[in-house]
Amino acid sequence: MFDHGSEDGAVEDLRLHRVLVVRSLLSPLFFKHRRHAKTKN
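Structure tokens predicted for V-type proton ATPase proteolipid subunit (41 residues):
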């Protein structure tokens, strides 16, 4: 039971890392889209 606790923690860390990486990669794209939307309007 307790052995799986450490594994779950590692999995959660990986998921958080993925989310942060994806956000860092996508955030500039979203900002560009927002800028284009503002210029169009």
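The chain has one helix and no strands.
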